[in-house]
Amino acid sequence: MTRYVLVRLGNGLFVLWAALTVSFMVLHLVPGDAVTVMLRGRGGEGSSVDPAAADALRAQLGLDRPLYAQYLDFVWGAVRLDFGTSFATGDEVSAVLGRSLPPTLELAAAALLLTLVAGVAAAVTASLLPSAPLRSAVWSVTVAGGAVPSFWTGIILLQVFSFRLGWFPAFGEGDLSRLVLPAFALALPGIGTLTQVLGRSLRTALADPYVRTARAKGASRLRATTVHALRNAAIPAMTLFGMMVGGIVAGAVITETVFSRPGLGTLTAKAIDTHDFPVIRALVFLVGALYVLINLAVDLVYPKVDPRIVLRSA
């Protein structure tokens, strides 16, 4: 078990370093001069750039130093959660992220919880249905749900439940009612995908000999599904659920814009629009770090669900 945890920690640190390196390269992969792009973004397209202002900004960002020195400073700053100063607002990037992160975490947590509960419930329910046409209908609905983009779902939900029925507020954040529609819009594609993967694993597990033995001993189909088959069928779904975190955070960029919610999505859109590269680099690293942490947590839960994983890795 210790070796398994150390290997997973090492993998997580490597991916985190890769995300940090990618976020550092964002500023250097911009076509042309990044400083000129930022200054023109502030003054508007086609505006002239003062060479003195460009030199001052280049010195402020440390771009006049050797590349290896810039990289080492960036890594050391990221370790201390210091990503410099926002070019658009003049605030510390860490402070800007600190204001935008809680609303996004709230939305992402609600969407992930809804994805988990609804996906598992739909997969188990479909597996328990006695009629093959009914099961096929459930699978078809989940396929459609997984194929619908979150921004389209958000627009439809706004039209129906906010503007026509008036059941939920359309925009903003605050109380729980303002979280329902964006969370559902963000979760719907994940619900469909998770239901498909878990349902397929359940169908395979229900055909295994140990499930047939449990049924022969008198276990009901509900008990055989939820107690015996679900645990072994959960491994692929857990892997998928961990990978969904990155998609949920990325989807928040559009969903928060549709519902006019503050958060990392709105901050990303503004940073891209204003060419605020210090904020963009911090956002790239933050999303990568969240992805690594969630997947590391999933990896560490695997042995609790299926102890054979540790034996195979050993």
Automatic annotation (TrEMBL):
Which subcellular locations apply to this protein?
A: Cell membrane
Question: What family does the Swiss-Prot or TrEMBL record give for this protein?
Answer: Belongs to the binding-protein-dependent transport system permease family.
Listed GO CC annotations = plasma membrane
- Identify this protein by name: ABC transporter permease
Which PANTHER family has this protein been placed in?
A: DIPEPTIDE TRANSPORT SYSTEM PERMEASE PROTEIN DPPB-RELATED (PTHR43163:SF6)
Keyword Transmembrane helix attached: yes
Please report the record's description of how this protein sits within the membrane.
Answer: Multi-pass membrane protein
One Pfam family assigned to this protein is: BPD_transp_1_N
Organism of provenance: Streptomyces hoynatensis
Give the UniProt keywords, A-Z: Cell membrane, Membrane, Transmembrane, Transmembrane helix, Transport
* Keyword Membrane belongs to the record: yes
Might you name a Gene Ontology BP term for this protein?
transmembrane transport
Write out the transmembrane intervals: 12-30, 107-129, 141-167, 179-198, 240-259, 279-302
Q: Which domain of life is it from?
A: Bacteria
| ABC transmembrane type-1 domain span | 101-302
Principal subcellular localization: membrane
Q: Which InterPro entries match?
A: BPD_transp_1_N, MetI-like, MetI-like_sf
